[in-house]
Amino acid sequence: MLDPVVLKKRLATASEEYLKYAPTIARMPGVGEKYSIGESGNEYIVDLDRQTCTCSDNDHRGDISPCKHLIVIWIYKYFKIRLEEETECN
Ligand SMILES: [Zn+2]
After folding, report:
1. Mean pLDDT of 55-84
2. Which helix (H) or strand (E) holds 90?
């Protein structure tokens, strides 16, 4: 079950670390919506269809709150969609 306290903490962490992670995000080829995030050696795969991440945090406490990588990808997608919409309007 989601824990609002943990979720709040992770949202804050993800917002703080968004700028650090954003340049490392890459959409992976193939079926489904998967992104790699992080630097090589510390790289994780976020699966948006399944809402999973390969990091240990998500493994252990993914049922309490999505991990920061997953949240960073949500933010990334939100901005990407907004930017595309604005580009289309202009
Ligand atoms: Zn993660």
Report:
1. 88
2. none
What is the 69 CA–ligand 1 centroid distance (Å)?
A: 4
pLDDT band at 61 (very low <50, low <70, confident <90, very high): confident
Domain coordinates in residue numbering, the chain: 4-89
Look up residue 16 and give its amino acid: E
| Strand ranges, E, within 4-59 | 26-27, 34-37, 44-47, 52-53
pLDDT of residue 90: 65
* CA of 32 relative to ligand 1 center, distance in Å: 18
- Tell me, in angstroms, the distance from the centre of ligand 1 to residue 76's CA: 14
Strand-strand pairing, 26-27 and 52-53: unpaired
Distance CA 78, CA 42 (A): 24
Angstrom distances, CA of residue 10 to CA of 22, 46, 60, 74: 16, 16, 14, 13
